[in-house]
Design brief:
The complex is a heterotrimer of chains A (425), B (227) and C (412). Chain B is α/β, with parallel strands linked by helices and 227 residues long. Chain B has helices at residues 46-53, 76-86, 102-113, 117-130, 146-158, 176-193, 204-209; strands at 2-15, 18-31, 35-39, 61-66, 69-70, 87-90, 164-168, 197-201, 212-217, 220-226. Chain C folds into two domains: 3-52 and 262-410, no CATH class; 65-248, no CATH class. The chains are: A alpha+beta (425), B alpha/beta (227), C alpha+beta (412). At the A-C interface, helix 2, strand 2, strand 3, strand 6 and helix 10 of A face helix 2, strand 2, strand 3 and helix 11 of C.
Amino acid sequence: MNRRAWNMSFIKFRHFFIMYLQLAWRNIWRNPRRTAVILTAVIIGIWSMILLGSLMRGIAVGMIENGISTLTGHLQIHHKGYRNDPAIENSITDPVVVENALREVLPKGSSWTARVRVSAVASNARHYSGVTLVGIDPVAEAKVSFIGTAISQGRYLNPGDHNGIIVGEALLEKFDTKLGRKLVLMSQDTHRENASRAFRIIGTFRAEMEATEKQFVFVMRKASHKMLRLGDGISEISILLPGKPDNPEIYDRLMTALPSEQFEVNTWRELLPFQTAYLRILDGFMWIWYFVVFVAMGFGIVNTTLMAVFERMREFGLLKALGMKPWWILREVLTESFLLLVTGMIIGNILAFICIYALSGSGIDLSALAAGAEYAGMTRVIYPAVALKDIFVSNLVVLLLGILVSTYPAVKAARFTPVEALAHT
Amino acid sequence: MKIVECINVNKTYQQGQIKVHALRDISLVIEKGEFAAVAGPSGSGKTTLLNLVGGLDASDSGSIVVDGNAFDQMSQSQLANLRLHKIGFVFQAYNLIPVLSAAENVEFVMLLQGVTARERQQRAKAILDDVGLAGKYDRRPAELSGGQQQRVAVARAIVSSPSIVLADEPTANLDSKTGEGLLEMMQKMNEEKRVTFIFSTHDKMVMDYARRLIFLRDGRLVDDQVK
Amino acid sequence: MSVDVKMAWRNIWRNPRRTILTICAIAFASLLLVFMLSFQFGSYETMINTSVKIHTGHLQVQADEYQDKKSIRLVVPNPEKIANLLDKIPKVEAYTFRGQAFSLISSKERTYGAVVKGIDPEREATVSRLKALIRQGDFLSKDDTDQALVGKLLARNLRVNIGDELTVVGQGRDGSIAATVVKVKGIYSSGIDEFDRASIHIPLETFQEVYTMRGVVHEVVVIADSLGDIDTIKRTIKANLLSLNLKKALTVLDWNELMPGLRQSIEMDLVSGVIFYFLLVLVVAFSILNTFLMAIFERTREFGVLMAIGTTPGRLTKVLLIESMTMTLVGIVAGIVIGSLVTVYFQSHGIDISGASELLSQFGITGRMYPKLSLLSAVSGPLAVLIITFFAAIYPALKVRRMRPVEAMRAV
């Protein structure tokens, strides 16, 4: 076929197609009230699918972001065995090797920090509690974890703070103490002896979770080295990658750069099993939710289409009497359903995005239920999160299943015989 | 005795952009026991006239009095009550309630009037016998022929002895033989029970049955002859 | 049967296909609500019961402020007096005494901080699930001294096994150093990391000796016959505490106060559930509204005739409402029956949740989840459907009132 003929037939086809859509569109609005009502059902359906989906996704994103910023990072490097036995013996004694490898492998824009992290007992004159002692490099740490921006009273650590310590607000309260007071930390040093050292509280931090505030205390890495007789050793290196949190390529390169008999590299998915599990069942929940909303909507779609078809029985009979093929009628009915669904979807999507936009400013504040949120592993404020996948899937579910359930009335319409249709009053 | 009196009745409709003058200065008196036909081509205002006389619709000007009740002073619910007790209706088609049987359709009006169940049943059966439907009491409308359906409609219209029965082209959807049968039956009811009938038609055969012919054309009363 | 009901009933079956679809939509919504609510309630009960059976019991008698401060000095003196009191209260299923103190636990190689709990082995077994949670070794027996049960994660961190020795160092009630050596007799795993990582249990007598707590405890833990009895028991204990003439001020806390997070997270789940259900019912309502509305438009002509022969609009409204409410009721009853059957099936067989076990074990839910059918869960959802469909039906039924016979009859 030459180009000209091609064009002609394309134009013909386009004209036919537009006329065809126009016809279906007008048919939909022959009964505006019915269309409006069923459109509302589709709109509410798709709106709720997307909005609630984005909130559930938002809960997951909040949990994961919080998990990553609470001393996890996207990737972590430990001495082999540390994850199973997080004791001081399993420290990385020669961090320089790792740091060199990191400089080589990590893409531009990555940040990383090395920490000492051991379990310890904090005490003052009246109270005892188990805590995690974290020895940090304040400058590098601030780029990787939440602590750099979480100071609520006093100040953050400075390189000169040999015995300064930062504790959580909740711990401060639990210990009946305040800034400037002493706090004694006890732990086991590299010689398996009890090491203890007094620190002065120079700052406090606030975290999403009260448990975080009670668990972590921060000191200078140097100070922890001295206390634990650790030399230059560190417990872990936490890495934040630029862009997406998952980067298998970097992970693989780190694995090859660092000998596996000496080091272990873990992704945040391995380090945050609770959040990963939530993420996994979230998809299942979404599917159930989509399905349930759809079935509720589906009854309406079938019923309406069925009624529309029966109302137009005479018309279809006439068309058939004029020689129209059944499949044309089938296609006509399906096209009308398609247009109805698409219209509902467009409005529903727009509404959902307006709501998401409105919520994205301040989020949904659960502070009143903070203990409950924490119990469920959620952050205090939920921000809706839009995942393209969720939007795509929910729209696709509505469209495909919507067309599918419309085939029943459409087939019915295609089967009307001219005689019975014309006899129908 | 005057049953219906219309004086200078006017009625206009808005149909899309166009104003339709359906009735112009109609004045008319109908006496008790008449068997009158309102005749004229379609669009001449027959149905409008019957609707106004039946209190289904309000006139723009002029007065209508049925059995001593002046419509222009009555509320909707008073009109509904008047229709219930004084006026019977037979329409062209779709007259019956499809979910009720023949006897139940007839009983329905009496039920609204508060007649006891027993009397209702007796009277419904008696009147169905009179219109020639003995033994078909329990048939649903869909199980009856068009002529039979109209007979049920007539039975329903006359069962509670209204002052007047208004029938809007009752035979329009029937073949001529069935139509004739229906008219004979109506005539019989008129003679035996002294029921006043006004029906509209454009059918020559139907006009032959009427004892009075009222001709409408373009909303005007052009001829009124008593045979 | 009145003619209104008769007409309504026959009208319903004029278009059986549409009626069945509408009833199905209503039944589907009701069924789903019955099942989901039962599922939620069931999981709450599991969460409450497991948490209660692992940590807190239904009620605890403690010294004032102990709950917040956990200070070893805040003790319950004369626990036997409380015991006498509890023995007299009906519906108290069991009770036990515990002491607890934060201490350093050291094995040969490792030292960790953990809460040392002193328990009465015999009584503890009636109150908590600790005995059932033992994965290795054995539960404490009556005459054990210097033996300990260790959480699985703590045992791993300490690198100890059954029979290994642990050194416990802490602070006694009088401020002296409390130290002892205990042998690991059993290792337990609850699935709740916090519990498995940071606690060991030793016999109460050993505990009292080591921490200079002779004759006193920190918690009296009470289990009631059922969740519903807790309030009564709490009130009874409260009323009688004063008459016991104890030197220290004591307080009674129920599981809500002992675990505020649990209660709030249940509330949160319930609220989000209600939002879900509301949207679901709304979508169904629009589907139904459509059907009702159409059923009326279709019959406009018929209404015209009915009005022409003198039927009042009120009567038409009534017939229409009987129609829609009959459909709704049939749907709802079907939904309740099927929903209840489905729920009862899963109530006895359980729902496999192994895919989410990592997540849910943190809330004490392991293995299978069991929905729990109750009057509330079976009725409240369908009731919401009834109310909202009633409103969906009202609009079209009232629309009839504005019809005029002439126009109605002209409609096709």
